[in-house]
Amino acid sequence: NKTIAILKHLVDELNPYVLWYDGGGAFDSSYTEEYAQMFYDAFLKYYPQVIVNDRLFADERADYFTGENKYYRGTEKYAEGCFTANYCWGYSIDRDNAENTISISSLINNYILDCVCRGQNCLINIGPKGDGSLPQYCVELLKKLGDFQQKYGTIRDGGDAVYNGCQPNWGRCFRKGNILKCYVQNGESSIKLDGIE
């Protein structure tokens, strides 16, 4: 009841587009179906304009579905891969450092491209320090991502995903109009496109 009251206050006062609910569903067995239905009946059904993920309930009550440190591997149309660039989802003074932060090539190739070329959103977590500032190595990572997008454009750039079976082992691709845009990650001497009409 306390959670529902807080959420009602947040939605009424701030009018958010999205509530990203963590825990629950397949991610946390302590959230029961009874709790999920209570949350829906007391709150969500009165705010149909608010987009909610599947962390509380992994069924038609959710607007989109999530993967945890991987792209979403289900069949739902609207999905998001959720990743952390640091050691953990928060900040650890002992373990968050440049050595435990993903590389820019891994961020692009294994996180962002895996999501967006399948038509999914990609959420990247950067854990701030206790004072709210970002560690310098995280700032450098984001700057490198900005440099990549400055050079090559926004990765999906308004394109449409191609179906999962068409994501080849040499890279990732998506369609924009009648053009297939390919990101070649592995330096093979030739590339082969299967399953495209």
Write a compact overview of the structure shown.
With 197 residues, the chain is α/β, with parallel strands linked by helices. Helices cover 27% and strands 17% of the residues.
Topology:
Blueprint: H1 2-14, E1 18-19, H2 33-42, E2 51-52, E3 65-68, E4 79-84, H3 104-116, E5 121-125, H4 136-152, E6 160-161, E7 171-176, E8 179-184
Parallel strand pairs: 1-2, 3-4, 4-5
Antiparallel strand pairs: 6-7, 7-8
Report on the structure:
The protein has 197 residues and is α/β, with parallel strands linked by helices. The chain is built from four helices and eight strands. It has helices spanning 2-14, 33-42, 104-116, 136-152; strands spanning 18-19, 51-52, 65-68, 79-84, 121-125, 160-161, 171-176, 179-184. The chain has a three-stranded parallel sheet with strand order 3-4-5, with helices on one face. The protein has a three-stranded antiparallel sheet with strand order 6-7-8, with helices on one face. A two-stranded parallel sheet has the order 1-2. Strand 1, helix 2 (33-42) and strand 2 (51-52) form a beta-alpha-beta unit. The longest helix is centred in the last third of the chain and has 17 residues, at 136-152. It is globular and about 60 Å long. The mean pLDDT is 82.
Number of helices: 4
Distance N terminus to C terminus?
53 Å
What's the pLDDT, averaged over the residues? Answer: 82
Strand fraction: 15-25%
Overall spatial form: globular
* Number of E-type strands: 8
The helix/strand order is HEHEEEHEHEEE
Strand order of the largest sheet: 3-4-5
Largest sheet: 3 strands, parallel
